[in-house]
Amino acid sequence: MVDSATGRRRKYCKRSCRQRAYEQRTLTEGTAIPGDALILSPDEVIALGDRMFALRCAAEDLDTALREGEEPAVVAQMSAELVRLAREAERLR
């Protein structure tokens, strides 16, 4: 589905995204949980923590390599790995 030039903009990118939002609203209705809260399972929280730890370690390694004057090719490789880990860490589910 493509946004048209007229009318209101789409709120969700796909029908499945709209469905997940509906499910979350339904689950949190009548609770103290805010409607815009992100609910993760314990396993998802652990996985997110692991991805964030790997990202921090890669950033620290790159920082050390830069301060120690590592070869540009190695720094470029480490930078690419840092970007890959950042993209992976951004994924919540």
Summarize the structure.
The protein has 93 residues and is mostly helical.
Describe the structure.
The chain has about 90 residues and is an all-alpha fold. The chain has two domains: about 1-40, no CATH class; about 40-93. Helices cover about 65% and strands about 0% of the residues. Helix 2 packs antiparallel against helix 3 (about 70-90). The chain is elongated and about 55 Å long. The two termini are about 25 Å apart. About 0% of the residues are buried.
Element layout with pairings:
Elements: H1 15-28, H2 42-67, H3 72-90
Helix pairs in contact: 2-3
Please estimate the helix content: 55-70%
What is the string of helix and strand elements?
Answer: HHH
Major sheet size, sense and barrel closure: none
Secondary structure class reads: mainly alpha
**If you average the pLDDT, what whole number results?**
87
What's the structural domain tally? 2
- The rough form would be described as elongated
Taking the alpha carbons of the first and last residues, their distance comes to 24 Å
Strand content: under 5%
Instruction: Tell me the Rg in angstroms.
Output: 20 Å
The number of helical elements comes to 3
Unreliable residue stretches:
none
Total strand count, please?
Answer: 0
Question: Which key phrases capture this entry?
Answer:
63% helix, mainly alpha, 2 domains, 93 residues
